[in-house]
Specification:
It is built from 15 helices and 7 strands. With 342 residues, the chain is an alpha+beta fold. A hairpin with a 4-residue loop joins strand 1 and strand 2.
């Protein structure tokens, strides 16, 4: 190689290094800029809240449960809690309401924590594609519920807790209070009694499972726990804070305690994604794109792993038993923020 060729080669080499360095610096600057950028959740929530508030009041409250039928149908609130400790609430987000089937996720978490993989011998993980209290599907599958978030599956979880604990109601409540850092959370005995008096279909489900050998405890004891867990009252603020556990890979958001393993949290999130809205789970995934769980009290909670948990409450339900305004709000939230798991 002559002198001219050597100079030219060195020039190209130095130029390449400089271009690479500039590229690296530019990429680094973009990363820093991205990390510094925070979504204005407060403004977004307030904007969506006001938009939805103006919509027609479609849907009906769960009138077949007397204690829920008396709820003010105009109630509407939302609370979003981030993994780094920020909180944003609008409307009736501090008012307690009956969380109903949302509690199934928390009961499942306690049972999974204690029984680990053995749990899945009693209940499946497949979407049901049917109403939450379907009898024919349970009979077809010989007493093993499709998943732990339909009524039959949640009743099996209650049966497991009745085996694990002498006083399962107290233990479940203590567990939820610990997750939420709030000892004021409690059952509403009137709601539990109201549901028990009309729980004929749940009685049919548990008797069918008892006949199949999938219920190990006294039927009345198991149903008593089931109705009481559905009667637990929490606010949107409390729900969002509690469900940060699933956003934070199974770690308690305040203490850092590993309540469940990261793998367990992932699996529970997957079950919420595919089974959290019964025969409307596909619709929720399609429009919202987050793991979540609804309840006939009008509540919905959803999580974005690693970022936030959000809870919304509006008592008017659609034909599938999910909050009309809650579903709409969460769809608009993920659309405006651009944050869904898909």
């Amino acid at each position: 190689m002559d002198e001219l060729e050597l100079v030219t080669a060195n020039h190209i080499y130095i130029k390449a290094i400089l271009l690479f360095s500039v590229s690296q610096i530019t990429t680094f600057q973009r990363i820093v800029s991205f990390l510094r950028m925070q979504i204005d959740y407060r403004s977004i929530l307030e904007e969506i809240f006001q938009e939805i508030r103006q919509l027609p009041d479609n849907g009906r409250v769960a009138g077949y449960i007397p204690e829920l039928a008396s709820i003010d149908q105009a109630k509407f609130g939302v609370h979003l809690a981030t993994i780094d400790g920020r909180h944003y609430g609008v409307g009736d987000h501090e008012e307690k309401f009956s969380i109903q089937s949302i509690c199934k996720v928390l009961a499942l978490t306690l049972a999974f924590q204690q029984k680990k993989e053995e749990l899945w011998q009693r209940v499946g993980v497949e979407p049901s594609g049917n109403p939450f209290n379907s009898l024919w599907q349970l009979e077809y599958e010989q007493g093993k519920p499709r998943n732990p978030l339909i009524n039959s599956g949640a009743i099996v979880i209650c049966d497991i807790l009745c085996t694990l604990y002498k006083d399962p109601k107290t233990e479940l409540l203590k567990f939820i209070q610990h997750l939420s850092n709030n000892t004021s959370i409690s059952f509403n005995p009137k709601v539990a009694f109201s549901e028990k008096n009309l729980g004929f279909r749940n009685a049919a489900l548990i008797n069918m499972m008892k006949a199949s050998g999938n219920i190990h405890n006294d039927i009345e004891k198991v149903l008593d726990l089931y109705y009481h867990q559905c009667s637990i009252e929490m606010s949107c603020t409390e729900l969002a804070s509690t469900f940060l556990l699933f956003t934070n890979h199974g770690k308690h958001i305040s203490s850092g305690e590993q309540i469940i393993t990261s793998s367990m949290a992932k699996r529970i999130n997957a079950i919420m994604q595919t089974c959290g809205f019964y025969d409307e789970a596909g619709e929720f995934s399609f429009k919202v794109g987050l793991p979540g769980k609804s309840g006939i009290g009008g509540g919905i909670v959803a999580i974005y792993p690693g970022k936030y948990a959000v809870a919304v409450w509006s008592p008017r339900l659609n034909k599938k038993g999910n909050s009309v305004k809650g579903m709409e709000l969460l769809e608009r939230l993920t659309t405006k923020t651009g944050l869904s798991i898909f």
